[in-house]
Amino acid sequence: MTGDGCVIQATPSSNKKKNNKKKKNKGGTKKKMTHDQVLAFKFVSDWVFLDHPSASSSSFSSSPSAASCVVDDFGVQKPVGRGGEKLLFELHSHSKFSDGFFSPSKVIERAHINGVKVLALTDHDTMAGIPEAVESARKYGIKIIPGVEISSIFSPRGDSELEEPVHILAYYSSIGPTRFEELDKFLSNIRDGRFLRAKNIVLKLNKLKLPLKWEHVCRIAGKGVAPGRLHVARAMVEAGYVENLRQAFARYLFDGGPAYSKGSEPLAEEAVKMICHTGGVAVLAHPWALKHPVPIVRRLKEAGLHGMEVHKSDGKLAAYSELADAYGLLKIGGSDYHGRGGHNESELGSVNLPVLVLHDFLKVARPIWCNAIREIIECYAEEPSDSNLAAITRFGSTRILKGGSPLSCGQDLIDHCLPLWLSSQEMENADFEAIKLKLSNVSVTQGGIQVLVET
């Protein structure tokens, strides 16, 4: 893969008017990148292509100056020249492991078709789909950010009228969260509450003379998936009680609606603190859906919130951009893709984030992820157990294959993996050197069997 910092070919003056006309017909104009945008693009590109360093360097070897790169009116980098590529991030997507319609593999395949280079799978209250997403992404050269969208509730003390559901996006390093067991238990409790909530919704629908079957909802959700309102809505459509999903929500399932039921979600502040505690970046999802965004943002910022969604497929929302600025929050966005289709759903990769936005996101995220990676491998160095080795390989960013020629020691494992996760500058850390020294005499085993680690 190559970046999109391509050289603009000189155009003969006789064709200048013709080319300008073509640009106008396509909508918008192309501008040369500023110096800051060029540096931002290189910073982002270097991270995207950590495991393909030649691709990253080649994209800039022939275009080191601002004059050789272009962006559109919104500061989004554009491909120019043969073989040019955008660094397209998709930071909000769902699969069948929550309320999406497609498997993680199908989501990745569709993302590839749409030109996505980095994808965060952010299923509701579960990270179970991440290993499949990582495995599928290998085939297409897509970088996966392990993520999750946590369901929570904002409940101001003494003011029940302001209580409302809030969703928090969490973004983790390539090897996932620290203290994974704590996070998994936290998410499991939410999923258990989703089961009870969905059952209560079905009971309320039954009382409203809509004899929807619980088994029908569970069949749509799939084995092991905690049903949500979308699964109930799909069952209602299939049973013929409503014409479409929109009608199901508008008539019965909207917040406070006749069939609405609360779950057992944690407080939004607790969700943010858990994300920070487990080495993640916490971002408020779709704030435009909130009734009272200002007090929510204020409270969550105090809890450690890093950013909020501001960019949508139809552009940046000025009011929420100003709110993010007021509280010093990152401004990002994603399609919130579920695969349900229809004109109301944004396609994967449709939120084309400006290069400076991507730079700011990674500038905050990478130190957090670097510390998380250090903590995870440090645990393995302190206690080279199967469980601590599994923490490194949990999401499949590093695979362990039994048999073959084993690594000579744990230091080889770290030397092999760190360049895939961190930049050379991030690896220049005394802590990593100390960890490698501890692992120099540790044999890499799983279940007592020496293994070959493959990435």
Structure in words:
The structure is a single chain. The protein has about 450 residues and is of the alpha/beta class. It has 3 domains: about 70 residues, no CATH class; about 260 residues, TIM Barrel (Alpha-Beta Barrel); about 80 residues, no CATH class. It is about 45% helix and about 15% strand. The chain has 17 helices and 13 strands. The strands form 3 sheets. Strands 3, 4, 5, 6, 7, 8, 9 and 10 form an 8-stranded mixed sheet that branches. Strands 11-13-12 form a 3-stranded antiparallel sheet, covered by helices on one side. The longest helix has 28 residues. It is globular. The N terminus is likely disordered.
What kind of sheet is the major sheet?
8 strands, mixed
Helix content: 40-55%
**What is the H/E order?**
HEHHEEHEHEEHHHHHEHEEHEHHEHHHEE
According to CATH, what is the topology of the largest domain?
Answer: TIM Barrel
Briefly note the structural class of the backbone: alpha/beta
